[in-house]
Amino acid sequence: MTQLHFLLDENMPHAVRDQLLLRQPEMQVDVVGDAGTPVLGTPDPEILVWLEANGAVLVSRNRRTMPVHLRDHLAVGNHVPGILLIRRRYTWGQIISDLHLIWDTSSPDEYRDRIEYLPL
After folding, report:
1. How many folded domains does the chain comprise?
2. How far is residue 31 CA from its own chain's centroid?
3. pLDDT 10s digits, 64-85
């Protein structure tokens, strides 16, 4: 089964990726600013284009503007593999556990063109 590919936005600690990879070394987890990903400071609309081109699900705390940018992105016929937005008062341990569970149990198209708020 093809697994999800995560892109963590630049405001997510690299420790989230590190802990996910400790649990599941074959997991594909990139962080904005890594080689081959959008550079730090890339505007949200460009992040969405990158997600679509690279088949990655965004993990972000950007609950304020990302929904608006996704609506605009979809309105012109584009798509994204999905966006997982992190709610306040959600510990890093919970985030890591939930992302691992989502990776382990979800199909790549399950979050297509949608935003899900974590915890679910």
Report:
1. 1
2. 9
3. 899 999 999 999 999 999 999 9
